[in-house]
Design goal:
- The protein is an alpha+beta fold.
- The protein has one domain.
- The chain has two helices and five strands.
- Strands 1, 2, 3, 4 and 5 form a five-stranded antiparallel sheet that branches.
Length: about 100
């Protein structure tokens, strides 16, 4: 037993396949995605959070997601921006920080 979940093994070793074409999907992230995400949350904040942490970009299928730690006076959250291959925002949310 490897003591890992199926999902963790797939994320580390698997090659996602596009169900439409059967070809392997890219593991590349959109260049500049962290800067785009930081700019979006900075524009939204208007001083509502104390600071942002280091953004982390990663591929999700054909898209790029960027998670940014957000530090508020009342507690920490994680902001996520998801971008398509052209840099358009296709998802945006703030969730509780990972424990």
């Amino acid at each position: 037993m490897l003591q890992t979940t199926r999902q963790a093994a797939f994320q580390r070793f698997g090659r996602p396949v596009d169900p439409r074409s059967g070809t392997a999907m890219s593991r590349q992230t959109l260049p500049g995605a962290p800067d785009i995400a930081v700019a979006i949350f900075a524009a939204m904040s208007d001083g509502n959070f104390e600071r942002m942490g280091e953004p982390v970009a990663y591929p999700i299928g054909e898209h790029t997601a960027v998670d940014i730690p957000l530090h508020f006076e009342a507690g920490d959250r994680t902001g996520r921006v998801t971008l398509d291959s052209e840099g358009n925002v296709i998802g945006l949310f703030i969730r509780p920080a990972a424990q």
